[in-house]
Design brief:
This protein has a single domain (about 5-145), classed as Tetracycline Repressor, domain 2 (Orthogonal Bundle), CATH 1.10.357.40. The protein is about 45% helix and about 5% strand. It has six helices and three strands, in the order αααααβββα. A three-stranded mixed β-sheet has the order 1-2-3, with no helix packed on it. β2 and β3 (about 115) form a beta hairpin. The radius of gyration is 16 Å and the shape is globular.
């Protein structure tokens, strides 16, 4: 099991730097229909700042019903990059869990004694996308990393 998106697995997390703002920037910007607020979030200096700004916006009316699909679409978009797709494939069949200490038991899991508890939505999406990438027959050599 890969239970933390740090070090060699940092690329799995939403804060991983991309050529454009991070996936976190895109996810937070999707929360609102206000183009000015979207622009502010996308221009945020860090994913933490984008997340902070995303907590202050007026949520679009359909946010609760679309947020999982938004995240899935963004993760799928992120792993169209062949280098990142290869890294994802190299996780094999490991269970992917966004273990964290900041209390997010919806998108990830948190420690409760010796056990991890939470919905792990991000981990499940990553495993789904990994399977999709594998089924497409996309494979690159480990030396390309």
């Amino acid at each position: 099991m890969i239970d933390r998106f740090i070090n060699q697995y940092e690329f799995l997390g939403n804060f991983y730097p991309l050529p454009h703002p991070t996936l976190e920037h895109h996810f937070q910007a999707a929360k609102t229909l206000d183009p000015i607020k979207k622009g502010e979030i996308m221009a945020a200096s860090s994913p933490n700042e984008a997340k902070k700004l995303g907590r202050t916006v007026k949520l679009r009316p359909d946010w609760e019903s679309i947020k999982n699909k938004v995240m899935e679409d963004l993760v799928r978009w992120k792993f169209q990059d062949p280098v990142l797709a290869n890294k994802l494939l190299l996780t094999g069949n490991e269970e992917l869990m966004e273990g964290n200490s900041h209390g997010d038991s919806i998108w990830g899991c948190v420690r409760n004694g010796d056990a991890w508890v939470g919905e792990n939505r991000l981990g499940k999406i990553l495993m789904k996308v990994r399977l999709e990438v594998r089924k497409k027959g996309v494979a690159w050599s480990q030396t390309s990393l």
